[in-house]
Amino acid sequence: xxxxxxxxxxxxxxxxxxxxxxxxxxxxxxxxxxxxxxxxxxxxxxxxxxxxxxxxxxxxxxxxxxxxxxxxxxxxxxxxxxxxxxxxxxxxxxxxxxxxxxxxxxxxxxxxxxxxxxxxxxxxxxxxxxxxxxxxxxxxxxxxxxxxxxxxxxxxxxxxxxxxxxxxxxxxxxxxxxxxxxxxxxxxxxxxxxxxxxxxxxxxxxxxxxxxxxxxxxxxxxxxxxxxxxxxxxxxxxxxxxxxxxxxxxxxxxxxxxxxxxxxxxxxxxxxxxxxxxxxxxxxxxxxxxxxxxxxxxxxxxxxxxxxxxxxxxxxxxxxxxxxxxxxxxxxxxxxxxxxxxxxxxxxxxxxxxxxxxxxxxxxxxxxxxxxxxxxxxxxxxxxxxxxxxxxxxxxxxxxxxxxxxxxxxxxxxxxxxxxxxxxxxxxxxxxxxxxxxxxxxxxxxxxxxxxxxxxxxxxxxxxxxxxxxxxxxxxxxxxxxxxxxxxxxxxxxxxxxxxxxxxxxxxxxxxxxxxxxxxxxxxxxxxxxxxxxxxxxxxxxxxxxxxxxxxxxxxxxxxxxxxxxxxxxxxxxxxxxxxxxxxxxxxxxxxxxxx
Length: 596
Known about the structure:
Elements: H1 4-28, H2 31-45, H3 52-69, H4 81-89, E1 96-101, E2 110-113, E3 127-132, E4 144-150, H5 154-159, E5 163-164, E6 169-173, H6 179-188, H7 195-209, E7 216-219, E8 227-228, E9 231-232, E10 240-241, H8 279-282, E11 290-299, H9 309-324, E12 332-336, E13 344-348, E14 351-355, E15 357-358, H10 363-375, E16 380-387, E17 397-398, E18 413-414, H11 416-422, E19 430-435, H12 441-449, E20 456-460, H13 472-479, H14 487-497, E21 504-506, H15 533-539, E22 543-545, H16 548-570, H17 574-595
Parallel strand pairs: 11-12, 11-16, 12-15, 16-19, 19-20
Antiparallel strand pairs: 1-3, 1-10, 2-7, 3-4, 4-6, 5-6, 8-9, 11-22, 13-14, 17-18, 20-21
Helix pairs in contact: 1-2, 6-7, 9-13, 10-17, 16-17
């Protein structure tokens, strides 16, 4: 039996865990999430006075925390000096701890993998610890990962450059595969003449050597994951957030587990039209003699641990902002994480309207939809794209780990090049991108450099090497009244207010001075006297009629251009004509999307 003082300490810990759980969820979670977590806290989170598992977790967490507090930032190569200094000053209460622990202490049980890279020191491990020093940042952001291995002696641990933490256990820092060698080669061949350029490249290289996502940790097994309804069930995540550890941070507020268990719309399993991987599943709206404001909201999520309640709230808040500014319900398409069975309920007079939420995993449908909106003249007046996904250092958005194997695949990510290709030479009058995600400055930079996106305005929550924090950027956009304010003024107000990141703007030919004088729904702004609410509704908000003469003139010019392209291709040599046929086929596919 534990001494009375120890028992009293664990009683205080139990009370602290319950307080942290209730307080955190009352602040930022749904009732369903609260009930689920209270049940979990009541049954599993509180440690017992004689629990060796709890004492082991606490020892592992403290050892990892001590390691990062003793870093020499002049020698650290797995993150930037700025991030290193942040870790030196971070407090326990601002660090979230994740641990994979085998309770029966079997050695060599766990395997870890990152979505975007391999890991050094691959193989099996006795345990895994991950420290998140940025719990208020959105993934990707720096995560420090350690492997715990059993050793025969302290000397054996030190021989393999590990840190001995007692109980025959050795702690080793996990690193991205080959990153250290790449950085050392870069420094070795650096010259004084290339110092400035090389320094920028080095900073990028260091950022890309960071571990920016929680690894998928699972038990080693020789069996392949089960397949149900044509979809792999993947591996069960063993790396769990530990809220019971004294002095450390609250765990993030996740969506209810029943909402993130499976893909809501599985094209292999669900043989229905709404689950097709084409624009028809989405119901793209392009009517003749009509031009509408359209919006596409994209929020990946990747997996349960990175799909937080605040991300679903961001989608709802952005949707409501657009609806307040005249966007019709059918003109707003939402691609969110693994999808939602219940959409966004909206009362319109005497009836209730439900806006369907598609999985972000339906990448093909999403891209078809965007391409059709951009490909047809007069379909769209103002196109708004909202991006709020976990992101890699190059700006690539992670959508959803459909097969649950922990590795990002081509159809599970949306790159900046793919996005820019989808909106290239977009026929909308204006394309406005609001990107609230880490490394979103990569997108703004790409738009500034492009010659094919003259009507695109990109507003990013931070510069190319900065994280996105909480929902701050989104909150500013959604709380303002956009009736008469220019998007450039909205952006400048937000930029002047943000503290943890520096919002960035990208537009070709604007030299960072801001976009043209338009509101988020494409109306002229800074007009004196300002438009009345009725004038905005009649002339700018929602859908507007396109004069028959204008529509027909555009239609016949498109047909004429298509015929000229066909004639030019027929006069090419055979080998070139084959290539031209391929181009024509792709062009006809895009034209069919525009006409459908």
